[in-house]
């Protein structure tokens, strides 16, 4: 067994798919499948359960992944030392985040970090769900509530604000909204109720909305509905500068506040490269969020 075997194993474990891993590795899926089977033969154990839905790790695969990730991190640290680039970050970092922060905050923040660290590669996985860091779906994740289980390190980043909002053209076409009681007569945009993955995202219950006429699990889709003048919805203040014409409604009566956390696998605190990146990321998110909220 060599490092190349571990590299292929990690790609399949992280994507749970030969096709996706093959694309990332620029390797034919059939060849990759044979390499994984050969690795299992060498180790004398089954690493993946094959199914039409993809490749799920067995208990043996989970154990190997823990060691493979540690080896990968040690290799990255060693390469940085040999390059003598102590002042710069290199290698790859994957961030998991809800699509609101992934769409409207992380692109600017990570681009600035990469400008200062040309050898760094950043991947943003934008999905409206909770990430499993123990399975290395990402190196770190931004969350809206701190996890209560697992060997995880949790750092508060900053608070953020949300308001009820609509496009000015929608407001011009519909009856005026002078109080919360008037909201019930308007079309509501929000999350699909049974796909709200965190109770902190159940915004509409706080304004008494009983029916969501236009629903999506994506913040970006919801914002685009509002931009199109489709109805009323709760919007992150930091997203409003990206939606010309969308304005706050009842800003004094509807003021929501939530918090972002940076979540990492506990052992990663010992890895200087990831800790440095985490510090830059948190600092950048705080600064960019403050800038955008001031424009909202």
UniProtKB/TrEMBL annotation:
GO molecular function: DNA-binding transcription factor activity; sequence-specific DNA binding
SUPFAM superfamilies for the chain: Periplasmic binding protein-like II, Winged helix' DNA-binding domain
PROSITE patterns: HTH_LYSR
Keywords: DNA-binding, Transcription, Transcription regulation
Listed InterPro entries: LysR-type_TF_proteobact-type, LysR_HTH_N, LysR_subst-bd, WH-like_DNA-bd_sf, WH_DNA-bd_sf
Any GO BP: DNA-templated transcription
Residues annotated as domain HTH lysR-type: 1-58
Domain of life: Bacteria
Family: Belongs to the LysR transcriptional regulatory family.
Name of the featured protein: LysR family transcriptional regulator
């Amino acid at each position: 067994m060599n490092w190349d075997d571990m590299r292929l194993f990690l790609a399949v474990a992280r994507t749970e798919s030969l096709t996706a891993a093959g694309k990332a590795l620029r390797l034919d899926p059939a060849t990759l499948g044979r390499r994984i089977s050969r690795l299992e033969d060498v180790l004398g154990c089954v690493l993946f359960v094959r199914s039409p839905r993809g490749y799920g790790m067995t208990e043996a695969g989970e154990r190997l992944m823990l060691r493979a990730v540690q080896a990968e991190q040690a290799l990255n640290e060693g390469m940085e030392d040999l390059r003598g680039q102590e002042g710069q970050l290199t290698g790859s970092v994957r961030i998991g985040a809800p699509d609101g922060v992934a769409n409207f905050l992380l692109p600017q923040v990570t681009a600035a970090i990469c400008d200062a660290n040309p050898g760094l590669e950043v991947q943003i996985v934008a999905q409206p769900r909770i990430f499993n860091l123990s399975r290395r779906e990402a190196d770190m994740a931004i969350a809206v509530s701190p996890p209560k289980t697992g060997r995880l390190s949790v750092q508060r980043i900053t608070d953020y604000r949300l308001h009820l909002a609509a496009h000015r053209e929608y407001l011009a076409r519909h009856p005026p909204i002078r109080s919360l009681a008037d909201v019930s007569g308007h079309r509501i945009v929000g999350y699909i109720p049974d796909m709200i993955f965190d109770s902190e995202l159940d915004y509409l219950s706080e304004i008494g909305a009983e029916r969501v006429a236009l629903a999506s699990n994506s913040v970006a889709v919801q914002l685009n509905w509002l931009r199109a003048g489709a109805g009323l919805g709760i919007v992150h203040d930091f997203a409003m500068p990206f939606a010309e014409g969308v304005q706050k409604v009842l800003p004094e009566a509807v003021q929501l506040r939530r918090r972002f956390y940076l979540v990492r696998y506990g052992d990663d605190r010992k890895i200087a490269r990831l800790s440095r990146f985490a510090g830059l990321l948190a600092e950048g998110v705080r600064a960019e969020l403050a800038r955008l909220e001031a424009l909202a």
